[in-house]
């Protein structure tokens, strides 16, 4: 990896010794700089489990990515500066989906003086690494929980409404996620196929754009509004999510049509 290019991409100016301070600083810098997004699924571009392809997309082309891309890139960068990193298989909403949820998320474990759960690729994620211990941990205005389940399983959840995920500490190679990665970007049953998602962390808030609905989460709670024009949609992606994409209008037309269909469905259910 060209570590200097990655550090420039995330605007990180701190130390690089494998310490808690470095891990915390890199985690925050990555989240502030690189947005979570699944737009390539809706633009017809395959999402590849290849470290060099991920580096080219997220660092050189200054795009965002989803969990497999974001955490694969972060794991590679951490290893380059001396951290001991293990890839873990997360299972999003395993309590509802059972085995179908297996490997639906990639999460990281970093070994320092303590074990830390590290995740820069989850919508309901955390700003800084979490100590791998049972109980509640608070960061700013958000509260997170880690719980030991039966057997080797752990569960992560956040107080704010959203999915949880389970995981074990078994080590995986990146290639082990290939089948689920392909399924989630191609199956009509996949939420990633049905809805566009963009998310970005800021020091004082989290912005999440799902389809045409923008959510702002901050110390005052969650606030939603509907994006109703292409001009506003383009401005959001360009300014707030720092995504420079050509020919956005066809994407917006699909997003808006899906929103109207969803609103019609909800009205019919009322």
- The tally of structural domains comes to 2
Low-pLDDT runs of 5+ residues are: none
What strand line-up does the widest sheet have?
Answer: 5-4-3-2-9-8-7-6
**Global mean pLDDT:** 94
What is the chain-wise order of helices and strands? HHEHHHEHEEEEEEEHHEEEEHH
Largest sheet: 8 strands, antiparallel
Report helical residue fraction.
Answer: 25-40%
Strand content: 25-35%
Structural write-up:
The protein is α+β, with helices and mostly antiparallel strands and 270 residues long. The protein has two domains: 182 residues, Arylamine N-acetyltransferase fold; 75 residues, Arylamine N-acetyltransferase (Arylamine N-acetyltransferase fold, 2-Layer Sandwich). Helix content is 37%, strand content 25%. It has ten helices and 13 strands. It has an eight-stranded antiparallel β-sheet with strand order 5-4-3-2-9-8-7-6. Strands 1-10-11-12-13 form a five-stranded antiparallel β-sheet. β7 and β8 form a beta hairpin. α4 packs across α5. The protein is globular. The model has no long low-confidence stretch (mean pLDDT 94).
